[in-house]
Design a protein that fits this description.
Shape: globular
Largest sheet: 9 strands, mixed
Distance between the termini: 75 Å
Radius of gyration: 29 Å
Number of helices: 11
Bound molecules: uridine-5'-diphosphate
Helix content: 10-25%
Structural class: alpha/beta
Amino acid sequence: QSQELSQVQIDYHAALQALVEDGTRMVCTGRMHTDRICRFESLCYSTEAEEFVYFHSNSSVMLPNLGSRRFQPALLDLSSVEDHNTQYFNFVELPAAALKFMPKPVFVPDVALIANRFNPDNLMHVFHDDLLPIYYTMQQFSDLDLEARLFFMEGWSEGVHFDLYKLLSNKQPLLREQLKTLGRLLCFTKSYVGLSKITTWYQYGFVQPQGPKANILVSGNEIRQFTKFMMQKLNVSLEESSSEEYIVVFSRTINRLILNEAELILALAQEFQMKTITVSLEEHSFSDIVQLISNASMLVSMHGAQLVMSLFLPRGATVVELFPYAINPEHYTPYKTLATLPGMDLQYIAWQNTDREDTVTYPDRPWDQGGIAHLDKAEQERIIKSTEVPRHLCCEGRPPPPPCRNPEWLFRAYQDTKVNIPSLIHVIRQTVKSKPGPKKQKWSSSLYPGKVRDAKCQASVQGTSEAKLAVSWQIPWNLKYLKVREVKYEVWIQEQGENTYMPYILSHQNHTFSENIKPFTIYLVWIRCIFNKNLLGPFADVLLCST
Ligand code: UDP
């Protein structure tokens, strides 16, 4: 990987002339700043002003052309974290003629992906906010291939996980600070700005308390396509089941410790009759951890960013998340949400320390490690007495105003815990009945039925008060190519003009309805197919039936 911009010979004179004549061209996807990604030709960046520059010329294009709505609040989010006011992207405009008076542009020949990392020192943030979104943004645009170059504009230094970012492309990613060394005015020949949010599953609680995103659009399949790519790049082989089954305890060594780790490991090994090993980010290489986790039957860890590594667990494995005293597992669910994404096929178990005797607090540490000594006495008392941290907002990475740094949360989050072994084993046993770990079962892929076909109805009237409606249809077209355990049909019969309907679940492709069917009435009949109880297909076009 070369640090310099690639040495593709570009005809500098021609490039400059094209910039002056054509200006900047921008075409974006997305209707709002929160779902927008823009493709630019000749987007420039002034390293002195630390601003992107859009040059107007005869051939420039700006779509969407928002006028001043471009500032309300921004053109787009540079990170995958939604609508965060420190992550907005915009540019300043200049006429191309101004180039005559500006520093000579340095052209960036690589196709560029320009974005912000959100919190590159925290592994959960690294995977969830950056690596997965970058990977799938690159999948979305075909010229963002392995020869593309990443530009991180958030202003952080490389951070402890920079090697992971390097796996996403063959070229060394560049940081905002490094751009200065390249020139005063950089012009990106072709660039994409912004990140796809389609794979994110969690919101961190900036405007409402943290929790799963409202509309999750990713499944285990896409997560595993990504982890497969990462494992290839890390040279981790996907060993198959031949080897022994084992449990991984992912420990933290600096804070939020498990105080009786040795006892815990022995207990797990004994209970499940499996080898049990510990790993930590401090003591193991990243690829060793991935290798171990990717074949593990169970992953046990304190709540914390290292648990995002359950991304790499094999299907069927179990995640056990341990929560310190006074921290309600239901309120902090990034890893639960991950483990229970459709198709992740992981079992998730939360255990919480409910015993004050088993917790060790650190009131005298600095505030960012959970200390509370800086608070007034009454507030310290209240926090120490409290049995549960109330739901709160959170604002990692955002400049202070309260309630960002919630001292009560930090105080409880950085406790050490002596894990009550019988209580933990009991909780695990409620879910894991026999041996944990990848079952040899084939995972049923969840394919949905198509519409039923050729729906027909025939009415018959008996006297003045009774009628029957015979409805028939053909199987969905895709069913003949599938092996499906159970095929059912749902039929709704709605009298025209009424808001209610009568629902039926049927096993056959025809049925005669006589209950509540009136003569000389028009009915709307809605039919859909259902595979395996919960895979609901689309309704076929409504059928109009007059008795
Ligand atoms: N970390 C770690 N061992 C420790 C403490 C932290 O590996 O003893 C890692 C942790 O996994 C995360 C980063 O350091 O990637 C920041 O940890 P922090 O406690 O700030 O965040 P959290 O884990 O609560 O998200």
